[in-house]
């Protein structure tokens, strides 16, 4: 078990609800909105309540309860310009972006935001979004091979001049980007996140990314992923940080929190969840070792479409804080939180949960947990 990051404070991010339907596919009331005004206020609330990052989702075609959606990179820039400290991560799909074009956009966004832009490379699970646009649909491991090249190319363009690259998916010929992003020794390029659960995703993150983003996992699942990720990174003389998705239901009593979870699942939009399940479970099952995203997800898991219930951040502030710090001891560097009612629940988290996390961190020195 790794404790490499135990001396650092765990960081927090939130899912930007730039997609309609909220973060659960359920008819339960969700006091949230996918629009601009709501999200600007939410971003400002989040950065004033201890959140360092926000992740803008990416969907291109209306589907599975996400009927409306704002494009991730442009929406991320809007949030960056409305905040002072928040780092905003835009999710992007290789195959629908050229890495040099995204590198240009990212450099501009980084200057406009004074160094707060980041990207999350997601290799694509929704076949129709590619085929309906006339783009080729690659098999799972080929999508991740393309994502690996994508990450490698964009970092080179952000940090080097006269870039030449000869890959299977991208050819770059004597290309120089200026201005470069606001690169510093502490952050040599805008942060690169690799999303996914498969072995191919971990290999990509270990070799090419700054961060690995995992779907929701329990302690055993996190331990397995961190061990694999760090073995790959160490083999390439690198270090990679680990982010974990979790749907957070913090209430004054455990009963309230559990009742909320029960209501979410009972009111699931069954046709939408089943349609999503049919579309995504081929992704994990198409891998050789069956370790891809959603490969072992139940119907109940998929009501939160990134397996956020599996992380079990559900209960009182004390229970959630203790579980977060337990994940930190396993090597988790960041919690990516989803919420039912974003505005008030992010405020509640900042007031009730985060101070307990910091108290627990302060009381547990590295020597105490080894």
From TrEMBL:
GO terms for biological process: alkanesulfonate catabolic process. Keywords: Flavoprotein, FMN, Monooxygenase, Oxidoreductase. Signal peptide: none annotated. This is Putative FMNH2-dependent dimethyl sulfone monooxygenase. It holds the Pfam family Bac_luciferase. InterPro entries: DMSO2_SphG (IPR024014), Luciferase-like_dom (IPR011251), Luciferase-like_sf (IPR036661), SsuD_RutA_monooxygenase (IPR050172). Residues 11-333 form the Luciferase-like domain. GO terms for molecular function: alkanesulfonate monooxygenase activity. It comes from Gordonia alkanivorans NBRC 16433. The keyword Oxidoreductase applies. Transmembrane segments: none annotated. Coiled coil: none annotated. The keyword Flavoprotein applies. NCBIfam families: LLM_DMSO2_sfnG.
């Amino acid at each position: 078990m790794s404790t490499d990051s135990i001396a650092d404070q765990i960081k927090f991010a939130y899912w930007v609800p730039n997609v309609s339907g909220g973060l659960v596919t359920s008819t339960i009331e969700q006091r949230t909105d996918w629009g601009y005004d709501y999200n600007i206020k939410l971003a400002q609330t989040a950065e004033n309540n201890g959140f360092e990052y926000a992740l803008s989702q990416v969907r291109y075609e209306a589907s599975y309860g996400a009927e409306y959606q704002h494009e991730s990179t442009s929406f991320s820039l809007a949030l960056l310009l409305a905040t002072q400290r928040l780092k905003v991560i835009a999710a992007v799909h290789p195959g629908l972006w050229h890495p040099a074009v995204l590198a240009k956009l990212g450099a501009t966004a980084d200057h406009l935001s004074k160094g707060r832009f980041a990207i999350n490379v997601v290799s694509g699970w929704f076949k129709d979004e590619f085929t309906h646009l006339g783009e080729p649909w690659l098999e799972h491991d080929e999508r991740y091979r393309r994502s690996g090249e994508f990450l490698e190319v964009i970092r080179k363009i952000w940090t080097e001049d006269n870039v030449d690259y000869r890959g299977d998916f991208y050819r770059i010929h004597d290309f120089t980007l200026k201005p470069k992003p606001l690169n510093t020794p502490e952050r040599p390029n805008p942060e690169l996140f690799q999303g996914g659960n498969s072995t191919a995703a971990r290999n990509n993150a270990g070799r090419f990314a700054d961060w690995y983003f995992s779907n929701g996992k329990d302690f055993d699942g996190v331990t397995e992923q961190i061990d694999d990720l760090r073995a790959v990174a160490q083999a390439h003389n690198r270090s990679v940080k680990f982010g974990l998705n979790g749907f957070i239901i913090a209430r004054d009593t455990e009963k309230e929190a559990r009742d909320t979870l029960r209501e979410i699942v009972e009111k699931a939009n069954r046709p939408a969840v089943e349609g999503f399940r049919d579309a995504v479970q081929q992704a994990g099952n198409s891998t050789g070792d069956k370790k891809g995203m959603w490969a072992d997800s139940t119907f109940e898991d998929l009501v939160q479409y990134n397996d956020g219930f599996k992380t079990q951040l559900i209960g009182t502030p004390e229970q959630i804080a203790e579980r977060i710090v337990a994940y930190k001891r396993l090597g988790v560097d960041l919690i990516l939180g989803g919420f039912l009612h974003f505005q008030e629940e992010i405020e509640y988290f900042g007031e009730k949960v985060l101070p307990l996390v910091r108290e627990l961190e302060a009381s547990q020195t590295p020597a105490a947990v080894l």
